[in-house]
Amino acid sequence: MSKAKAERIPVKDLYAKAEKIYPRQVHGFFSRLRILTVFLLLGIYYIVPWLTWDDRQAILLDLPARKFHLFGITFWPQDFVYLTLLLVICAVGLFLFTAFAGRLWCGYACPQTVWTQTFIWIEEFVEGNRNARIRLDKKPWGPEKLLKKTAKHTLWILFALFTGYTFVGYFSPIRELWDGILAFSLGPWEWFWIGLYSLATYGNAGRLREQVCLYMCPYARFQSAMFDKDTLIISYDEERGEERGKRKRNADYKADGLGDCIDCKQCVHVCPTGIDIRDGLQYECIACAACIDVCDDVMDQMGYDKGLIKYTTEHSEKGKSTHILRPRTFLYTSLFMGLIATFFFLIATRTPLDVNVIRDRNNLFNETFSGEIQNTYQLKVLNMSQVANDYELKINGYQTSQIDGPTKFTIDAGGVLTLPLRVSIDADELEKRSNDIYFEITTLNDSQDTYIAKGKFLGPKKEK
Amino acid sequence: MTEFWNWWVIVIVAINILGCWGLLFWTRKMKENEVEDTGTTGHVYDGITEYNNPLPRWWLIMFYITLVFGVGYLILYPGLGNNKGVLGWTQEGQLEEEVAAAKAIYQPLFDKFLKVPVEELANNKQAVEMGKRIFVNTCFGCHGSDARGNPGYPNLTDKDWLYGGNPAQIKQSIVAGRVGVMPGFEAMLSAEQIDELVQYVGQLSGNQVDAAKAEAGSKTFALQCAVCHGANAKGNIALGAPNLTDDIWLHGASSRSIAQTIRGGHNNQMPALGDILGEGRTHLVTTYVYSLSNSK
C-alpha cells in the first residue's frame, strides 16, 4: 500500500485558474480616441431610449405587440427581411473594416471593450492605479480592503443596474419603467430582464473581461481568416528592438549590442488581455493600441524615435509596400456599398401594407344561374403605417371580374381588417381549373402606394 | 407509463447525468510526466504535437453548473419517468392558465356587450368587427367567409330566413342548432307529378313556366307540400321550411335541381355552437349576422 502511494504520479490540471490582469491606464493618442468612442457609444446607448417622436418613444421594440417603432417607421414581423439585411450589412461591414484596419472593432467599438473600460475607470477611481490594486489584492482582509471592495462593487452594480434598466427600456417604455421601479410595481419579467442584463454587464465587464475575448467571442477566433499581409496590425519592431535589455539613459547601448527595447515591460502592464506584444501577432491581441501609447512615451523619455510598437502591416514590416487596394477590399467594399444601397432602396420603396389572401377551402366554387363562377375569400389587410388610411381594392387580369363586398375601406394605424368577399368571373374567361388572381390594393393618400397580393381562383374543368 | 418504462427513463437519465459528471471529472487532469518541458502534452499525431493550453477553470465550472441545472430541472419539472415534479407543471395547467388570461382580457368586453341588445349593438363598429372575426373563424366553412352561403347552406345576408331573422331567433339557431328535413317524394309521386310541381314552384317565384302543368302542380302542392311550406308557399319558420316564392333556392335554382330536391329530399343540419362559443361570442356573432341584413 505504502509502496503504491510512493509511486503515485503527480497530476496536472487541464483547467487553469484565470490569472487576474491589472491593466495600467495609459494616456496617449489612441487612448484619447478610445475615450471618445466610449463616451460617444455609451452616450448613444443611454440617451436614445429617452428620445421621443410624435409623442411616442422614438425607438421602441414592442415585442408583445410585435411592433418595432424606429422614429417615423413602424416595422412588423413581416418586415423581418430588413433586419436580416441589416445584420448582413453589419457582418460585411465587420469584414470590410477587418480587411482594411484589422481589429478596429475590438479595440474601440465592441461593447465588451467599451463597458470594460468604464468598469476599469470605476475600479481605478476606488482602488487606485495598477500597483495600488495589486497591493490591495495581496493584503489580508481588513477594514480598508473591505471598504474599498464594497465601494467598487456597489458602484459597479449601480452602473450595471442602470445599464440593464436602459436595455429593457428599448423594449418597454423607459419612462413608465422608471415609475414602475420607483413604485416597485413592475411585472416579474421586467425585473427578471433588468436583473439578467445587469448581471451580464457586471459579469462581463467587471469579472470576465478579457476572458470573453479569449474564450467566448467567435469573431476573435475567425477574424484571422480575414487577415492578410496588408492588414493593419499592431506590431513590435523586432529588428529595431532586439536585443532588448536594461541600460543607462545616455549609454551607447548599440555598442553593447542592445536594441531600442529597454525591457521595461510597460507594454505588458498596460495590455488588457495580458499578452506580451513582443512575442508577435497573437489571437489574444484586441488591437487596443495601449502598448503603442505607452511605448511611445518610453521612447520619448529615452530620447529614441517613437514607433517601436506601431500600427503596421506584415508587408511594410518586411520592407515591402502595403496595398490598400486589393481584390479583398474591392470585394468587401462593393458588397458593402451594394447592400447598403439595396437596404435604403427597399426601405424607401416599402409599402406599409400587408395583404393575405385566404380562399375559402370548403367549397371549390359556386356557379350562378347566368354562368358566372364564384370564389369566396378572406382578405386580411394590415395597415403597417402610423396613420389611418383609406384603401381601394380592385382585381387585375380579368375583364368580367366582379367583387361582391366592400371595395373601399378605412383601416386604423396598425389595424388589421378582415375583408370577406366573393369574386365572380365569367366561366368563359377562365382558362384552367386553377387560375391566378391578383388583388390590387391602393392607398388613397398622396403616396398612392399599391400592394398586389396573389391568390388562386378555382373554376370548373373546361369542356373540350 | 408502465413501471418498466418509468424505470427505463429514470435509469437512462441517471446514467447520462452521472456519465457526464464522470467524463468531466476523469478528463480534467493528466498525469504530470506526460507534460513535457516544452509545454506539450506528449501526444503526437502524424508528427503534429499537441500543446497543453489549459482552458480556464470557470469553463469547467460552467459544465458542472449545467449538471446542477439539469438535476434541478428534473426535481422541479416532470422528466424523471412518472415523477410529476415539485412545481406540478402540466401542459393542461398551462393551457388553462392561458385561457384564463385570455378570458380576463375578453370577458369584460363581452360583459359590456352582453348588456346591449343586438339591434343596438349592430351599430357598434367594434362589436360588429369582433363578431365578424368570430364568424370567419367558426362559420365560414359552410356559410362562406362572406356569409353569402354555399349550395345547401343558406345565405345570411338576404332577408330570407329559414328559422326567422330577429335576434332571438338567430341566437337560438346558433346556440342550439337547427335540423331541417325535407322528405323525398320519389315513392309517392310520379315523374309527371314532380315535373308539374317544379313548374308550379317555378311560377311562384315569377319564372316563365308551362301554365297548364303549373296548374296541375298546384293541386299536388296543396295536398303534399302545403303542410310544411304553407298554403301560400311562404314557408314556415317553425319547421325551417323555406319560402318558395322569393326565387331564393337553397339547393339550386335550376329545374333539375328543384326536381332532385323533391325526389330525394334533404336533411340539413346547423350544428349547436352555444357550448363552443360561449355566451359572449354567441352574442357578438348574432350581432354580426343580424347586421348583415339590417345595417343602416
UniProtKB/TrEMBL annotation, chain A:
GO molecular function terms noted in the UniProt entry: 4 iron, 4 sulfur cluster binding; metal ion binding
TM helices/strands, residue ranges: 33-53, 80-101, 155-174, 180-200, 330-348
This protein's encoding gene: ccoG
Organism phylogeny: Bacteria, Pseudomonadati, Pseudomonadota, Gammaproteobacteria, Oceanospirillales
Listed name of the protein: Cytochrome c oxidase accessory protein CcoG
InterPro entries linked to this entry: 4Fe4S_Fe-S-bd, 4Fe4S_Fe_S_CS, Cyt_c_oxidase_cbb3_FixG, Electron_Trans/Redox, FixG_C, Helical_ferredxn, Ig-like_fold
GO CC list: plasma membrane
Keyword Transport attached: yes
Keyword list, A-Z: 4Fe-4S, Electron transport, Iron, Iron-sulfur, Membrane, Metal-binding, Transmembrane, Transmembrane helix, Transport
Keyword Transport: yes
Domain 4Fe-4S ferredoxin-type: 251-280
Organism expressing this protein natively: Aliikangiella marina
TrEMBL record, chain B:
Residue intervals passing through the bilayer: 6-26, 58-77
Cofactor needs: heme c
InterPro entries per record: CcoP_N, CcoP_N_sf, Cyt_c-like_dom, Cyt_c-like_dom_sf, Cyt_C_IC, Cyt_c_oxidase_cbb3_su3, Cytochrome_c_Oxidase_Subunit
Entry-linked Gene3D superfamilies: 6.10.280.130, Cytochrome c-like domain
GO cellular component: plasma membrane
Chain sites annotated for binding heme c 1: 139, 142-143, 270
Domain named Cytochrome c: residues: 126-205, 212-293
Record's subcellular location: Cell inner membrane
Keywords: Cell inner membrane, Cell membrane, Electron transport, Heme, Hydrogen ion transport, Ion transport, Iron, Membrane, Metal-binding, Oxidoreductase, Repeat, Respiratory chain, Transmembrane, Transmembrane helix, Transport
Cofactor note: Binds 2 heme C groups per subunit.
Binding site for heme c 2: 182, 225, 228-229
Pathway assigned in UniProt: Energy metabolism; oxidative phosphorylation
GO molecular function terms noted in the UniProt entry: electron transfer activity; heme binding; iron ion binding; oxidoreductase activity
Protein's GO biological process: oxidative phosphorylation; proton transmembrane transport
Top-rank taxon: Bacteria
Family, as annotated: Belongs to the CcoP / FixP family.
Assembly and binders: Component of the cbb3-type cytochrome c oxidase.
Protein task: C-type cytochrome. Part of the cbb3-type cytochrome c oxidase complex.
Name used for this protein in its record: Cbb3-type cytochrome c oxidase subunit
